[in-house]
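Re: export button greyed out
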Amino acid sequence: MEEYMLILRHQDGAKIASPEQMQIWMKQTMDWIGAISAKGKFVSGTGLLFDGSKVVWPHGVVTDGPFGEIKETIGGQMIVKADSFDEAVEFAKGCPVLQGEGNSVEVRRIAKNDGTHK
Amino acid sequence: MKDYLLVYRADYTTIPDRTPEEAAAMTKRWMDWIGSIAAQNKLTDRGQRLAASGKVVKNESTVTNGPYAEIKESIGGYSIIKANSYEEAIVLAKGCPVFTQGGNVEVREISPM
Amino acid sequence: MQQPELIPHLFRTEYRKIIAVLCKRFGFEQIETAEDIASETFMTAAQTWGLQGIPQNPVAWLYTVAKNKASNFLKRQAVYNHKVVKDPAVNEDTSTMPAYEIDLSPQNINDSQLQMMFAICHPAIATEAQIGLSLRILCGFGIEEIADAFLSNKETINKRLFRAKEKLRSENIAIELPELAQIDERLGTVLATLYLLFSEGYYSVSNNKTLRKELCFEAMRLCYMLVENKHTNKPPVNALLSLMCFHASRFEARLDRNGELILYEEQDTSLWDADLISKGGYFLNCSASGNQLSKYHLEAAIAYWNTQKDDTKEKWEAVLQLYNRLLQIEYSPIAALNRTFALSKANGAPEAIIEAEKLQLTNNHFYFTLLGELYTGINNRKAIQHFQQALALAKTNTDKQVIQKKLDKIAH
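Workaround output, generated via the alternate export path:
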């Protein structure tokens, strides 16, 4: 069993939804996580603010970020357990973030059980 | 639409004292009448009632107790109404309760400023 | 784990507070930024609470996030002013400056909302724009809800709000309470707007009953804020609140399940809200100080009599006199018609017929309905004629049904 990180990207974090849509979205996220948890495969999740972030560069340079070149912002991340990349991708497919046009979920295997990282 | 001044006159000295019920009935007649004009959107200013006592200043040295010694009728109040013509203003004036007191209504067109 | 309508509920109660405080802080030049920050705060909440669960104190969570977003914005702006505009007044070290703190204390929230009410209800702003801005900024209504209430679409409402905000900026309207000496005068506009807001809900063409009710209660909440502040707690404010309480007491009784109107005579009085009626009485008493008799006083007194269903002579005489006085302060066709109806109850139908025929409101179906009613039993042929004229003028199905019912009654 490996751990995978799902990175929830929003095309435009400031896009305004109605409170009712937000409510549905929150509930869908909860249900989505609930289904993953029910399989014992949820590890953790965190929401991120859409602004006020900083990017730290070499030589002590700090800029306001994260949206330098890309318009997308990261709205949240979560870690799941999965037997394969395919299974992690299947989990990602259910993410409510994907209902938004242009949004995406990046799936990355966490490097720790690969023999080089302990 | 022009404004017309209605001046209510009556000989208030000959009006007998009224019981509270009669006074209330009179007030109602006035209210219903002015309300009727207002309901037709023809009231510009409900105007004022004037108190019975008054003074008349004739020149710098002559001041008499009034309101108007020579004639019996005195002005009891006034209102300003809107009408298209004298005829219409007169129709509006015709329901005035002052007639039940033997009084009259003087109708005057107000000249525009 | 999940709470069914948490976010819409919090949006309704907290969005307006956040936006009032931020607008007050930023000024109307940055009203869009304030709106963005408030909206983003809720977006962030929806995402984060979805992933991590609902925090113990959701309101405090929202305030913290909104504060951070707002102070980040202020800092960025200060840096920009320093570096780009070269404003020497701005210190580069922005991290320690308390000036970027956002005050979301109950006191500041309340003050900001009250000041915002006076700013939006400024005489320079068109009435329609005042209503739209009030719904959006003072009541936290979504664009869709506002569109629904006005039977309009989102684009139209957005355009209308955009223009209204431009006006707030171009007129340079300050978010503050007027000088004490001007409060009475400025209150006039505020009360007029609140009354319209209430009427929008009470008489709305929208069939969305929940929404209509919320509009009414929002107007009452804003009016109550004025009552709670010692500078704005004036007799006409209490009179308006009393009027709203009396009207709202019949809310459940006057609309059926489909949002269709149930006429006063046919209402189930057990559905009248006794609590609101007694509140109406309370505020009516509070309004009876000073020597100012506003139209709200008269309308509240009429509304009080409407909570007395018994058809007594005393009731209709009182209502007639109140309408007589109301019409002297402000004419409206509906007041003229109501006055004539009261006249028929107090002085009899023959007199009322003469009076009604003087009104000549010949493009108003209520006018012919009233004449039809007055003639019923006196001259049924004329009554039918008038009802038919009313039917031809009536626009909504509800109105037509009501008139048809009256026609059917005569025929039988």
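The helical segments of chain B are 20-39, 86-93. The button fix ships in the next patch.
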